[in-house]
């Protein structure tokens, strides 16, 4: 119990520190930050509700009893896949070491307790986000359960599955990252990529068979694959029995154990360093504007997440190309291939926070300085283009997306860029607070997905090309909001100096 109290105390301290830091950066009160976070949770719930309503409209007919198990199993596999991918993104985007960890090292708190305590708010946000994205599973449970008791049991199994997958994936990522650093002697950034690739592979291996090739109703026999988490929790949700309950409990205990062991590993002594790209480069012109642009570009390409993304994107292209060979996945291949070029641009969500502490330096040194918001936006666009252009050429050459879809992909890249800049200005990234990366990424995904889904819904019966006009309009609105928030930050720079 003392250990649990220490974990809870560290988690509470992490929340308080993050709330105060965001309030300080935004020039507001901690109460306003808490209200904003609560409103974000409400918006996430509404987003999940909207997805559930859309899914409910597709599932109008009565589901036969013999199809119930297969449908629940497929939906639980999709939920597990989403939770696993969310966990990997949280791990990759989080800072390697925080200021709070440096303080906790001086206190009688074990390494595992300190790490889990700091992860608790992050995992809570990840659970909320995973639940919002997988709310269609809730519809499946409600529509296929025979009564209220079955609905409660199914929802309980669904929540436990999300929690187990999040804990397992985060713990596995930590173990693999340590193995990459200590066993293979990889630098910290490459170790993160190594851990991310293997964690994603593990999640895909455990869930993809049920998503791409759902079991037939007449399938019989038993195999070790029936012990996979999504299958066990789906079985417990459909027909509760002592065996499935015992194995599900075992998965929960294993998830807690893996997280505990992974949290005991020593974290890097400093933050992950990016590759020294563009060494020896100079600004194109000797004036404050190009000087800002040059500095912002250096920061963008030397960002550790930039290198991780550069290493993961070729694997993503290869995975989508392999997925094209699966008949059941043919419908989603163009959407996945079109999303790959967008990923480098969403790294701009960290651009504001990484340089916010030094925005005042040019003004103090030279008496005046160029506004940083537009050089920052252009630098983020250039850095994103470095990675997106080869990916775009590859998916077009392989034939994963048709050439006619190129304007739509470019507009999505533009929307991803301005959305990331806006969210990064609203919730600035911090190397000292892992929750900042989580909340900023959560807000980015929520705004981007809501915008694209709303545009798609609004233009279902509109004239051709209307969706492209709406993409441009939304991008202009988000860019204007970014300028407003950035101007507010700029007005506070003399105080930071």
From TrEMBL:
This is ABC-2 type transport system permease protein. The keyword Transmembrane applies. Keywords: Membrane, Transmembrane, Transmembrane helix. It comes from the Bacteria. The keyword Lyase does not apply. The chain crosses the membrane at residues 35-56, 76-98, 119-142, 148-176, 188-212, 232-262, 306-323, 329-349, 378-403, 409-427, 439-457, 469-487. It comes from Microbacterium azadirachtae.
């Amino acid at each position: 119990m003392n250990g649990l109290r220490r974990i809870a105390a560290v988690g509470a301290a992490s929340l308080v520190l993050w709330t105060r830091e965001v309030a300080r950066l935004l020039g507001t009160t901690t109460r306003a930050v808490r209200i904003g976070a609560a409103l974000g949770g409400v918006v996430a719930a509404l987003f999940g509700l909207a997805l559930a309503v859309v899914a409910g409209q597709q599932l109008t007919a009565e589901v036969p009893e013999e199809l119930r198990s297969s449908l629940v199993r497929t939906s639980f596999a999709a939920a597990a896949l989403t939770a696993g991918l969310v966990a990997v993104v949280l791990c990759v985007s989080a800072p390697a070491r925080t200021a709070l960890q440096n303080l906790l090292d001086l206190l009688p708190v074990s390494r595992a307790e300190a790490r889990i305590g700091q992860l608790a708010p992050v995992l809570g946000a990840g659970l909320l986000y995973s639940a919002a994205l997988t709310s269609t599973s809730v519809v499946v449970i409600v529509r296929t359960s025979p009564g209220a008791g079955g609905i409660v049991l199914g929802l309980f199994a669904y929540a436990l599955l999300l929690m187990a997958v999040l804990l397992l994936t985060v713990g596995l990522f930590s173990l693999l990252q340590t193995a990459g650093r200590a066993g293979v002697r990889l630098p910290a950034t490459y170790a993160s990529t190594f851990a991310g690739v293997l964690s994603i592979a593990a999640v895909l291996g455990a869930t993809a068979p049920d998503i791409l090739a759902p079991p037939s109703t007449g399938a019989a026999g038993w195999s070790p694959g029936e012990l996979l988490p999504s299958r066990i929790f789906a079985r417990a949700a459909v027909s509760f029995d002592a065996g499935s309950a015992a194995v599900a409990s075992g998965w929960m205990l294993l998830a807690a154990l893996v997280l505990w062991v992974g949290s005991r590993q020593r974290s890097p002594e400093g933050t992950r360093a990016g590759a020294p790209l563009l060494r020896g480069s100079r600004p194109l012109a000797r004036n404050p504007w190009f000087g800002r642009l040059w500095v912002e570009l250096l920061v963008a390409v030397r960002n550790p997440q930039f290198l991780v993304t550069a290493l993961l994107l070729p694997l993503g292209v290869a995975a989508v190309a392999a997925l094209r060979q699966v008949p059941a996945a043919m419908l989603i291949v163009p959407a996945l291939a079109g999303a790959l070029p967008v990923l480098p641009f969403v790294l701009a969500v960290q651009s504001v926070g990484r340089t916010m502490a030094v925005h005042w330096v040019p003004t103090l040194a030279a008496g005046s300085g160029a506004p940083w918001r537009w050089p920052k936006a252009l630098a983020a666009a250039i850095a994103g283009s470095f990675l997106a252009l080869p990916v775009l050429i590859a998916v077009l050459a392989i034939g994963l997306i048709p050439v006619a879809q190129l304007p739509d992909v470019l507009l999505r890249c533009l929307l991803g860029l301005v959305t990331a800049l806006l969210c990064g200005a609203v919730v600035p990234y911090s190397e000292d607070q892992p929750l900042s990366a989580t909340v900023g990424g959560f807000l980015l995904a929520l705004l981007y997905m809501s915008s694209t889904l709303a545009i798609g819904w609004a233009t279902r019966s509109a004239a051709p090309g209307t969706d492209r006009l709406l993409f441009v309009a939304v991008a202009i609105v988000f860019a204007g909001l970014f300028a407003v928030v950035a101007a507010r930050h700029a007005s506070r720079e003399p105080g930071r100096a």
